């Protein structure tokens, strides 16, 4: 009895004092969201001017930091990047965490700073969590390039983007139109209903369809396979059953297109219904060879890394600073102009078909 | 027993010295103020969790929900900040939230007498899940710049981060309580035999209850540092950190069955792990290999006392006399530091 009374008293005391402390602290005028936004304007790095004729320095040390070290897609990107660095007589390496959690890249960034790397090329897991460390790196004169997944805009100099969304969307319609002779019903097999990139692409696809040259093509349905192999497989089946005169399926997701191809290749629709979209050559090779799929597209990840490698070297050598309008000379890829917010675009996706698919391995 | 303990701690200190000497000699960029700051900062949260876990493990219990409490508190910080609440109000709320989560653990373990391992594996999932319920899988950022230095900057011009200073203060407090107070002696007594401790008048339940609440609050502090340091509140913050913290405690020579271990040992283990991680990172050793090395170290730390005991028994086949054999009978001591120290926990018995 006594103890329970004591306990209650103690609990009451604890709660009151906690409340008091809270009230006291809160009373001292608070720092709320946005209230100190003005103080955040300190520019990162020193204002340098680009010298487009500066030679690329030899012996540059450039590190590639993927989301996680076992991400096969980013491994290929980094392979392309390291090849670019070696082409420029520098040394490239790939390091990274074994998990894609928000903050695990920060230790790596700090390590790369200590190792006096000349440039860091990163696919950010969390654009904000890596920002303070990347800003520190830039303050110490290290060039920072992001690729695939951008970091906060003020925490890197250049973002190398695979392709712009508009290009991807519009090129999908062009590709499907060529294959069905510009006429007939088509359907889209997407990932999840709220995937930002998918929805942006689909918007551009719809917009492209309003052009007069596509007036005979009707988009009859957008199905969602949730980037799940089984669900995508079933959605394909349902699309073909419910729309008997369907001419083509466009699946702008690697999971969707390969599941759809698997269904179609063993169904009577093989060779009658066109399938295209975004896929990887390794996943799609057998379906291109057996005639299920004629053409599909994807940006070439090795080229993405190659471009990022060149961007990093150019930044570290002072050829570019990341300002809009500067021109990046990117070896065998030619030249790229830096767009808004330091964005460099690789270009339209590569189209794969029976003629070239064996040249790619990813 | 005393000699055994000190022998392991001496080994830890030697290993620390070896790692730091090796790093300075072989690895450019290691022995620089900036790097030492990184190295210390990188282990701030792990150190706080280890200090929360140490007293709990001394009593033979465990708390595996620590990292999930960080996740929840971080998510809560994000949601409240997004809602426009002043950061000064969020701090006490988050601390109270940590205490509440800790006391939920305590209630299940102490009141219902459930095994701590099962309960905290459960709350490990539960609290992490709640973190996602609160914040979803997005991230909140833009925390006040004027508070960020507390989590990320150094004490005026030195290499010592404020956060490490905080860890040191908490460490000293824990050391004082554990090694120099009756409550501290009770922890060892509970760890050596809960029934006996109960019969000798130690208020076992009350102590255990308090330990879990303190653990919750320390996790909340760690979450605030984590959130500010990365300027990012997310539900997956500190994911998996509980295992690193438990490893640090065990590597520090604390018995998982309770009743044995010191703050000094855990502090040495933390420094060793932080230093080793940093040197390996600078030498581009992959995470997988680092995990292998840490795993081996941990196994060695558990193995050494057992092997030492076996050797001693073989040398001295008399029926196991619990209070260790006289000092001159023990194995050669690497630093000869064993003799002088009297550990308070030994006085208990």
From TrEMBL, chain A:
Gene Ontology CC terms, in alphabetical order: outer membrane-bounded periplasmic space
One GO process term, biological-process aspect: rhamnose transmembrane transport
Main location: other
Region (Disordered) location: 31-53
Domain of life: Bacteria
InterPro entries, per the entry: Bact_Solute-Bind_Prot2 (IPR050555), Peripla_BP_I (IPR028082), RhaS (IPR013459), SBP_2_dom (IPR025997)
Localization per record: Cell envelope
Tagged with keyword rRNA-binding: no
KW Signal (keyword) present: yes
UniProt keyword list: Signal
CDD domains reported for this sequence: PBP1_ABC_rhamnose
PROSITE patterns: PROKAR_LIPOPROTEIN
SUPFAM superfamilies: Periplasmic binding protein-like I
Residues of the signal peptide: 1-26
MF terms (GO), sorted A to Z: carbohydrate binding
Entry protein name: Rhamnose ABC transporter substrate-binding protein
Species annotation: Prauserella muralis
Automatic annotation (TrEMBL), chain B:
Lineage: superkingdom: Bacteria
Spans annotated as Disordered: 316-349
Biased composition (Pro residues): 320-329
Pfam families documented for this protein: BPD_transp_2
Membrane topology category: Multi-pass membrane protein
Intracellular or extracellular location(s): Cell membrane
Keywords, ordered alphabetically: Cell inner membrane, Cell membrane, Membrane, Transmembrane, Transmembrane helix, Transport
An example Gene Ontology molecular-function term: transmembrane transporter activity
A GO term from the CC aspect: plasma membrane
Transmembrane segments: 43-59, 66-84, 90-110, 117-135, 155-178, 209-226, 238-256, 263-280, 292-311
PANTHER family xrefs: ABC TRANSPORTER PERMEASE PROTEIN YPHD-RELATED-RELATED (PTHR32196), AUTOINDUCER 2 IMPORT SYSTEM PERMEASE PROTEIN LSRD (PTHR32196:SF71)
Protein name: Autoinducer 2 import system permease protein LsrD
Phylogenetic lineage: Bacteria, Bacillati, Actinomycetota, Actinomycetes, Pseudonocardiales
């Amino acid at each position: 009895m006594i103890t329970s009374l004591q306990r209650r008293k103690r609990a009451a005391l604890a709660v009151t004092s906690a409340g008091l402390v809270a009230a006291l602290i809160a009373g001292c005028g608070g720092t709320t969201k946005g209230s100190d936004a003005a103080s955040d304007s300190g520019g990162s790095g020193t204002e340098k001017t680009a010298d487009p004729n500066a030679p690329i320095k030899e012996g540059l040390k450039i590190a590639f930091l993927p989301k996680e070290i076992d991400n096969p897609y980013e491994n290929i990107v980094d392979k392309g990047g390291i090849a670019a660095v070696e082409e420029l007589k520098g040394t490239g390496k790939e390091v990274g965490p074994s998990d894609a959690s928000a903050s695990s890249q920060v230790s790596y960034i700090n390590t790369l700073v200590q190792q006096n790397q000349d440039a860091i090329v990163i696919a950010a897991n969390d654009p904000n969590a890596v920002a303070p460390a990347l800003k520190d790196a830039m303050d110490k004169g290290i060039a920072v390039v992001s690729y695939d997944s951008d970091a906060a805009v003020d925490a890197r100099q250049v973002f190398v983007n695979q392709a712009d969304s508009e290009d991807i969307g519009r090129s999908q319609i062009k590709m499907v139109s060529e294959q069905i002779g510009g006429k007939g019903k088509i359907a889209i097999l997407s990932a999840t209903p709220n995937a930002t990139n998918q929805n942006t692409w689909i918007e551009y696809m719809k917009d492209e369809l309003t052009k007069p040259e596509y007036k005979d093509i009707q988009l009859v349905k957008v199905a969602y396979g949730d980037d799940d192999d089984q669900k995508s497989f079933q959605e394909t089946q349902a699309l073909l059953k419910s729309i008997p005169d369907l001419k083509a399926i466009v699946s702008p997701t690697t999971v969707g297109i390969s599941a759809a191809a698997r269904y179609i290749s063993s169904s009577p629709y093989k060779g009658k219904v066109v399938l295209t979209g975004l896929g990887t050559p390794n996943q799609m090779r057998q379906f291109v060879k057996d005639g299920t799929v004629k053409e599909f597209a994807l940006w070439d990840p090795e080229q993405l890394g190659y471009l990022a490698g060149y961007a990093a070297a150019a930044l570290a050598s002072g050829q570019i600073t990341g300002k809009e309008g500067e021109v990046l000379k990117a070896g065998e890829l030619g030249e790229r102009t830096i767009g808004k917010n330091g964005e460099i675009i690789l270009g339209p996706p590569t189209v794969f078909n029976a003629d070239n698919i064996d040249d790619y391995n990813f | 027993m005393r000699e055994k303990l000190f022998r392991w701690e001496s080994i830890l200190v030697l290993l620390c010295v070896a790692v730091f000497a090796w790093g300075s000699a072989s690895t450019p960029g290691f022995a620089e103020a900036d790097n030492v700051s990184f190295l210390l900062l990188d282990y701030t949260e792990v150190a706080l969790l280890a200090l929360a876990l140490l007293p709990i493990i001394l009593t033979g219990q465990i708390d595996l929900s620590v990292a999930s409490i960080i996740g929840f508190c971080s998510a809560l910080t994000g949601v409240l900040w997004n809602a426009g609440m002043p950061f000064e109000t969020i701090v006490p709320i988050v601390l109270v939230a940590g205490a509440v989560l800790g006391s939920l653990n305590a209630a299940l373990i102490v009141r219902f007498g459930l095994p701590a391992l099962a309960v905290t594996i459960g709350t490990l999932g539960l609290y992490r899940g709640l973190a996602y319920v609160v914040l979803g899988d997005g991230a909140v950022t833009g925390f006040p710049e004027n508070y960020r230095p507390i989590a990320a900057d150094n004490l005026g011009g030195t290499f010592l981060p404020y956060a490490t200073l905080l860890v040191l203060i908490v460490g000293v407090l824990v050391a004082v309580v554990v090694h120099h107070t009756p409550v501290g002696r009770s922890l060892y007594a509970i760890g050596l035999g809960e029934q006996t401790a109960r019969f000798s008048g130690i208020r076992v339940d009350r102590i255990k209850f308090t330990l879990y609440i303190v653990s919750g609050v320390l996790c909340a502090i760690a979450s605030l540092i984590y959130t500010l340091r990365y300027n990012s509140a997310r539900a997956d913050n500190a994911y998996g950190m509980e295992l690193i913290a438990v490893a640090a405690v065990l590597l520090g020579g604390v018995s998982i069955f309770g009743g044995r271990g010191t703050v000094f040992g855990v502090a040495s283990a933390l420094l060793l792990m932080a230093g080793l991680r940093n040197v390996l990172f600078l030498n581009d050793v992959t995470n997988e290999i680092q995990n292998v090395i840490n795993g081996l170290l941990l196994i060695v730390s558990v193995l050494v006392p057992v092997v030492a005991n076996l050797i001693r028994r073989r040398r001295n086949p008399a029926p196991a006399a619990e209070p260790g054999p006289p000092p001159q009978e023990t194995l050669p001591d690497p630093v000869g530091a064993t003799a002088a120290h009297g550990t308070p926990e030994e006085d208990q018995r």
